[in-house]
UniProtKB/TrEMBL annotation:
Entry keywords, A to Z: Membrane, Transmembrane, Transmembrane helix
PANTHER family per record: OS09G0494600 PROTEIN, PTHR31881
Keyword Membrane set for record: yes
Transmembrane parts of this sequence: 7-29, 75-96, 117-137, 189-215
Lineage: superkingdom: Bacteria
Stored Pfam families: DUF599
Record's protein name: Putative membrane protein
Amino acid sequence: MKTLLEFLTPFDWIALGWFTLCWLGYAIFSHRQAKQVPTIATSLSDVRGIWMHRVLAREVRIGDVTALGILQRNVTFFASTTMFILAGLLTVLGATDQVIDLTNSLPFIAENTRASFEFKLLVLVFAFVYAFFRFSWSVRQYNFAIVMLGAAPEPDAPQDVQELFVVNANQILTRANDSFAHGLRAYSFAMAILSWFIHPVLFMIASSWVVAVLYRREFRSYTLKALKSAGKLPH
């Protein structure tokens, strides 16, 4: 019976270690940086705070509930799509021999044994399972936010009551957005895992490339600049 280390070549283990470092390392880095510099998430939170203040100034809030519903449906779409992807991956897992014969016949793909192919496939499954749980939790939090919006204070409510609502509603929406963002991040790294089936070196390059793309979008994008400007608008 093979041990776990025998499922992959040493080069594959190095590539997997680099991938893990990229994913976990970037998650820790972005979390810490968010406390020091503006990011997409923190800037969007400022804009949502303005939105919640505007909600309290309106007596009719149908448009706001509709907007939250659209956000929720976007996340629901990804959660449903993830289930289909997982179903497809499990189907491939049941037809490993045919897939291996096909991939090993291609000249630009490193040869995979049955054990290594199934292990890589399980890593890919793990990424999408993680994404699904993130998306499903995001959907639930958007549900909570819609309920909170329905219970929002009237425009003539005391100022402290209104501020308490704004803080709590924004907190739930921020957490819902964070869960959605983590799910999307898992999708990005899952794309890197696909390159592992071709070659471990390409897997390492793809993992690094994903980190670079995520960093640019979160800390250096034009979208971030626009959100930072929008967050300075008066309530």
